[in-house]
Structures are given as C-alpha cells and as structure tokens.
C-alpha cells in the first residue's frame, strides 16, 4: 500500500510539473560552417523536447579563376545563407533532428577571360572573335527544404545535413556567330555538363551539404 501511495505521489508531482507552462530558454553564439562564419540562435520549447533555431553565415570570397569542364572562367562568387528550422530533441538533450528552410547558398557570375582567344565546347573549338566571350551564372541555393541532425542549444553545437536543391547554370555568348544552331547546341551541352559537375549526391538526395560547428551561450 505504501509503495502504491509513493508511486501516486511521484506521478502526481510529474503531472503537476508538466502542467506548469515552461518558460522559453534562449541561447546564441558564433558558428562556422560550409558557407562561412556567422552566428546562430536557438529557442527551446515544449519542455525541452523541441526548439526553433535560426542561423546565418557568409564567406567573403574574392574574384577567382577556375577551369570547369575544360573551359577557363573568371568567377565572382557570393557565398552566404541562412537556416530557419524546427528541431526535435528526443531525449530532452542537445541532440536534435531538424527540418526547415535554407535561404541563400552559393552563386557566382562567370565569364571567360578576354585573353582566352578560344574555348572548347562539346569537343569543338570556337574562337572568341567569331563567337564572343562566354558569360553566365552558376547557382546552388534556396529557398529550399533542409534537414539536419546533430547537437543544438546551449553549449557545444555540431550538425550535418542536406538542403534539397539542384544546380542552375545559365550561359550565353556575345559574338556575331553565337546564334548559329551548332554553337547553341554545344552551349546547351556545356550548360548541362556544368550542372552535372556541380551536382552533389548525399545518400541518394541531391542538394547542398550542410555542416555547422559552434558554441551557444544559454540565457
């Protein structure tokens, strides 16, 4: 009988504690990730079983040259992005499983150097004086769905995940013969080759790999 009463008292105390509205707990701090450096903020709710989080990072990348699919480009990249997520904490700990949206990502304006003279598309050589310089834009960005698992909240933070998006490449040329069907077909093939080269596959999912490492101070 005494054991039964003790169990009743314990269960009553737990029920009473659960019935009291929990005050939100905030944490914030710096972080680094696949898109540079920045910060994050987390609000714990539902008695520690869930949280809402936001983060933003950027990387000050300057103009660079790169050879992609055999063609040399001058790139002016922009790398920045944010994540807004709802996270579940199955054990009321920092371990979390989150889903949300990625905003921003990776993008770059591209152009073949003026001194290039010629370039090869789909196995054929085209001269800049006849077909012009190539220019375009490479994008791998949101807004798009994102998923992440790791540790989040006050203290050490770490996470890995994926944002479900595909590369988008636009290419054009400004030369007198750039409208010829053969050249346009080669340009389309180059665009598709670039999109395939920029594609990332994570456990069968196509998108941007997400990594975060940081520290949050609890309030």
How does this structure look, described?
- The chain has 219 residues and is of the alpha+beta class.
- The protein has one domain (26-218): Beta Barrel (Porin).
- It has three helices and 15 strands.
- The protein has helices at 2-19, 128-131, 181-197; strands at 25-33, 36-45, 50-59, 64-68, 71-88, 95-111, 118-121, 124-127, 134-141, 144-151, 155-163, 168-173, 201-202, 205-206, 208-218.
- The strands form three sheets. Strands 1-2-3-5-6-10-11-15 form an eight-stranded antiparallel barrel.
- The longest helix has 18 residues, at 2-19.
- Mean pLDDT is 86; it is low at 1-23.
Q: Number of DSSP helices?
A: 3
Q: In angstroms, what is the radius of gyration?
A: 25 Å
What is the distance, rounded to the nearest whole angstrom, between the alpha carbons of the first and last residues?
A: 44 Å
Number of domains: 1
Give a count of the beta strands, DSSP E runs of length 2 or more: 15
CATH architecture: Beta Barrel
Fraction of residues in helices? 10-25%
CATH topology call: Porin
Structural class: alpha+beta
Oligomer: single chain
Give the class-level CATH name: Mainly Beta
* Major beta sheet, strand line-up: 1-2-3-5-6-10-11-15
Mean pLDDT: 86
- Share of residues in strands: over 45%
The unreliable regions are 1-23
Q: Based on CA inertia axes, which overall geometry fits?
A: elongated
The major pleated sheet works out as: 8 strands, antiparallel, barrel
């Amino acid at each position: 009988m005494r054991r039964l009463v003790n169990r009743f008292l314990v269960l009553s105390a737990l029920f009473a504690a659960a019935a009291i509205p929990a005050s939100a707990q905030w944490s914030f701090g710096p972080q680094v990730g696949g898109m540079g450096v920045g910060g994050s903020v987390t609000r714990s709710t539902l008695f520690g079983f869930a949280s809402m989080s936001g983060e933003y990072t950027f990387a000050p990348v300057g103009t660079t040259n790169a050879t992609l699919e055999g063609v040399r480009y001058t790139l002016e990249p922009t790398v920045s992005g944010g994540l807004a997520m709802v996270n579940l904490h199955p054990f009321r700990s920092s371990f979390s499983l989150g889903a949300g949206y990625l905003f921003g990502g990776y993008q770059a304006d591209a152009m073949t150097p003026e001194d290039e003279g010629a370039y090869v598309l789909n196995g054929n050589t085209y001269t800049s004086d006849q077909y012009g310089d190539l220019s375009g834009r490479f994008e791998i960005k949101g807004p798009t769905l994102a998923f992440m698992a790791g540790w989040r909240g006050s203290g050490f933070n770490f996470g890995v995940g994926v944002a479900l998006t595909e590369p988008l490449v636009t290419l054009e040329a400004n030369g007198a013969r750039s409208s010829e069907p053969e050249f346009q077909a080669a340009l389309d093939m180059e665009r598709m080759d670039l999109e395939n080269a920029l594609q990332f596959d994570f456990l069968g999912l196509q998108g941007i790999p997400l990594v975060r490492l940081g520290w949050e101070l609890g309030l």
